[in-house]
């Protein structure tokens, strides 16, 4: 039997969503440049292929029953005993959550799905799976760029609603402590973001700082959701490698007043758009990091190899080296996740392990923190900007 890298398990009673989850999940996996053959979809018909030795993420589709006789209970019990990640998904509201799932799932946080928010929630489910497999960053950081005198109400509204949907949102008026150097912290937060939301009001590009935010977001290869106000051009899209333009109309605002807040429908569309481009943004930034490293290594006469996990290996000074790309700012979690490769790495005799990252816009205090981690951990950090010097040492 083939050993699969990742197991997506879907159990319960399908209420017309199973195939949609699988199709979007496959697209996101391919967006990330990962071979789809590394995954297996497991349900009650092929549950004998399940193994507790490979990563697994289980979706349980819950629906109310008359006799509490829930589908796939035995296999579900096995999966929970193996401590696999598990996400219950129920129809309607969360008020009847307990009636739609087996008792064994009562302690799990779940997602409710209705026809009104179906697309948004499916994207959220798929991203939960990718995060569970550590294929997407868990911090879900979003940066809002706007002009205070033109769109503060919508910026605050987006901040509050995105936070409710599990995002870590940066808004200048809410996210920088009084003691922090404002501009340095702003660029630092942007460097660790996945998506920038631009509120493209009539004079958005009339400010030096909003111009700088757009230019920096483009330099960092961030995904950009561009929300253009009525009668305003979406020309900003040409500055972004990955962009999702949205146009709002007067009727999309409460009381048709553009300085008020957005209605629920356009607000939900924005959140759905943010969910849908996360994987493409991550893939673009990671691939750029990898390609720059491979090019630098080749220019210095070294042959670097890339495996199906997007891990780089090479020989330097007669030492086997492995390089793990990290998008955004390396934190202790990057090191922890990378350590999960250590056992397999040691089997292949790679004793020198590096976390590759881009230090653009990262604050000095954090770079010093990484140097401190380097002094105490087996895994070391490697700034892409310092690769040519590192190769020749």
TrEMBL record:
InterPro entries on file: TIR_dom (IPR000157), Toll_tir_struct_dom_sf (IPR035897)
The record's SUPFAM superfamilies line, in alphabetical order, gives: Toll/Interleukin receptor TIR domain
**Top-level taxon:** Bacteria
Question: Per the database record, which ranges form the TIR domain?
Answer: 138-266
Which organism is this protein's natural source? Psychrobacter namhaensis
Phylogenetic placement of the source organism: Bacteria, Pseudomonadati, Pseudomonadota, Gammaproteobacteria, Moraxellales
PROSITE patterns the record matches = TIR
Sorted alphabetically, which Pfam families does this protein's record hold? TIR_2
Name assigned to this protein = TIR domain-containing protein
> What Gene3D superfamilies does the record point to?
Toll/interleukin-1 receptor homology (TIR) domain
């Amino acid at each position: 039997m083939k050993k699969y890298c990742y197991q997506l398990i879907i159990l319960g009673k399908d209420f017309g969503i199973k195939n949609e989850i699988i199709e979007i999940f496959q697209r996101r996996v391919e967006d990330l440049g990962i071979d789809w053959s590394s995954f297996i979809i497991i349900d009650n018909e092929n549950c004998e292929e399940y193994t507790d030795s490979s990563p697994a993420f289980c979706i349980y589709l819950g629906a109310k029953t008359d006799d509490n006789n829930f589908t796939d209970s035995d296999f579900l019990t096995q999966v929970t005993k193996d401590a696999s990640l598990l996400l219950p998904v129920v129809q309607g509201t969360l008020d009847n959550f307990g009636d739609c799932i087996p008792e064994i799932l009562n302690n799990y946080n779940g997602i409710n799905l209705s026809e009104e928010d179906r697309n948004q929630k499916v994207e959220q489910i798929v991203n939960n799976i990718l995060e569970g497999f550590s294929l997407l960053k868990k911090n879900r950081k979003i940066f809002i760029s706007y002009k205070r005198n033109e769109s503060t109400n919508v910026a605050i509204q987006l901040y509050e609603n995105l936070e409710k949907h599990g995002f870590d949102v940066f808004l200048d008026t809410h996210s920088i402590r009084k003691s922090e150097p404002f501009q340095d912290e702003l660029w630092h937060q942007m460097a660790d973001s996945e998506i920038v939301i631009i509120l493209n009001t009539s004079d958005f590009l009339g400010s030096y700082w909003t111009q700088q935010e757009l230019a920096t977001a483009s330099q960092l290869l961030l995904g950009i959701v561009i929300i253009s106000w009525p009668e305003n051009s979406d020309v900003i899209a040409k500055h972004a490698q990955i962009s999702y333009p949205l146009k709002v109309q007067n009727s999309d605002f409460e009381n048709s007043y553009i300085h008020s807040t957005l209605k629920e429908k356009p607000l939900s569309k924005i959140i759905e758009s943010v969910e849908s481009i996360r994987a493409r943004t991550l893939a673009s930034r990671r691939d750029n990091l990898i390609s720059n490293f491979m090019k630098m290594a080749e220019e210095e006469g070294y042959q670097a190899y890339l495996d199906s996990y997007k891990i780089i290996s090479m020989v330097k000074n007669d030492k086997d080296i492995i390089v793990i790309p990290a998008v955004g700012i390396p934190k202790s979690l990057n090191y922890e996740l990378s350590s999960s490769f250590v056992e397999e790495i040691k089997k292949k005799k790679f004793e020198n392990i590096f976390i590759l990252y881009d230090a653009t816009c990262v604050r000095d205090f954090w770079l010093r923190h990484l140097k401190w981690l380097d002094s105490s951990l087996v895994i070391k950090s490697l700034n892409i900007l310092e690769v040519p010097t590192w190769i020749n040492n």
